[in-house]
From TrEMBL:
PROSITE patterns: PROKAR_LIPOPROTEIN. Keywords: Hydrolase, Signal. This is SGNH/GDSL hydrolase family protein. The keyword Ligase does not apply. Pfam families: Lipase_GDSL_2. Residues 51-211 form the SGNH hydrolase-type esterase domain. Residues 1-28 form the signal peptide. One of its GO terms (molecular function) is hydrolase activity. It comes from the Bacteria.
């Protein structure tokens, strides 16, 4: 059975213990990215998944079950833990004083079959070199610890107005870091541009907005998985 209960409640505890984790290695051996296998699990359980992300990915302002990673998991038959943290990024500490690197530590403890990494507008103000170093380090550590996991990166989401040039830089940098470790990239464009009715405020989706993101991500991931 999939997604029977909200997984937001476990995220804080998992992140709190992340810094105490003992992780294995920081880069793949010889600098080569390990190649993920196809997502297969015993018939007795669904694939396990975890989401790394920001306030949009944790479902700020909407019911817990309406966060888009959980909606995607429900549609694709995954058992997902949403570890996203409001205001966080690869270079930004979120509401729980953790960056995406700390979320990576929590993911490693869970050892899921699938890891969804949602790039974020929160990194838009970071110097490009700083973001590249942080994203590369986090993704390489994730791959080294979980060589068989399927890593899926998702493009960053802006608001109803036109995104800045810096957001394009975030997208390119995180995409490169994901692909460099043998992950897959899902680009959903900007579903809220010109659609303020899908936002609670300037950037956080309503329930309908979360559905828009989930539909776009689920369709692209399903097509990607069908190709093998």
């Amino acid at each position: 059975m999939t997604n029977r209960r909200p997984r937001h409640r476990v995220a804080t505890a998992l992140l709190a213990g992340a810094l105490a984790l003992s992780t294995v290695g920081c880069t793949a051996a010889g600098g080569q990215a390990a190649q993920p296998t196809a997502t297969t699990t015993p018939e007795s359980r669904p694939p396990t998944a975890a989401a790394i992300g920001d306030s949009i990915a944790i479902g700020y302002g909407v019911p817990a079950d309406d966060a888009w990673p959980l909606l995607v998991a429900k549609r694709l038959g995954w058992d997902l833990t949403d570890l996203a943290d409001s205001a966080s990024g690869f270079t930004r500490k979120g509401g729980s004083s953790h960056t995406f690197d700390d979320q990576v530590s929590a993911v490693i403890r869970l050892r899921p079959d699938i890891v969804v990494v949602a790039a974020t507008r929160n990194d838009a103000d970071a110097p490009p070199a700083t973001l590249k170093a942080a994203a590369t380090s986090a993704l390489e550590r994730l791959r080294a610890a979980l060589p068989d996991a399927r890593i899926i990166g998702v493009s960053p989401i802006w608001g109803a107005d036109a995104p800045t040039a810096q957001l394009g830089s975030v997208r390119a940098t995180v995409r490169a870091a994901v692909l460099d470790v043998g992950g897959s990239w899902v680009d959903i464009g900007q579903p809220f541009t010109g659609h303020p009715e899908l936002l609670i405020d300037s950037k956080h989706p309503t329930v309908d907005g979360q559905e828009e993101v989930a539909t776009a991500v689920a369709e692209k991931v399903a097509a990607m998985l069908a190709r093998g």
